[in-house]
Specification:
With 142 residues, the chain is mostly helical. It has one domain. The chain is 68% helix and 10% strand. It has four helices and three strands. The longest helix has 35 residues. It is elongated.
Length: 142
């Protein structure tokens, strides 16, 4: 089997790049919120409370939270958006036919702060560079 993307997958790769870019921004943002939440929880012993008795947003000890525990919502949201990020990473990896090591390296973007923002710029650029010759071949053949 030849290495590299198939010409018929170019449109799928372009769509996947769009999903990947959006998911990397969202995952990166929630990861930064998660880091902030962890500092509050394990550094200061408080969680972020939404709409509780202490105001719209408050830092409250976990046992005293009467409103919505925003810290838990951040944890859950980051987890699900990371699943979306991994899915987009996997589909892009499969269609472009990169090495498995590259898939794992890109997957780190959802667990290392700020790395997803770097990959949001780098990965699509690399994928577009790989499919550029295929698009040129399609234009010449048409």
């Amino acid at each position: 089997m030849p290495i590299g993307p198939r010409p018929e997958d170019v449109a799928k790769i372009r769509r996947t790049i769009s999903v990947y870019k959006v998911s990397s921004y969202i995952t990166g943002t929630f990861l930064l919120l998660l880091v902030l939440m962890m500092v509050f929880r394990y550094g200061f012993g408080v969680d972020i409370e939404l709409l509780g008795p202490y105001g719209f947003l408050a830092l409250t000890p976990k046992d005293l939270i009467a409103g919505i525990n925003l810290s838990t919502l951040i944890l859950i949201a980051h987890g699900w958006f990371y699943v979306l990020y991994l899915g987009a990473d996997f589909v892009l990896w499969r269609l472009v036919r990169w090495s498995f090591t590259r898939f794992l390296f890109i997957a780190l973007g959802g667990v290392i702060p700020f790395l997803s923002f770097y990959f949001e710029r780098r990965v699509p650029r690399d994928a577009l560079a790989v499919i550029a010759p295929l698009e040129t071949q399609e234009k010449v053949a048409a």
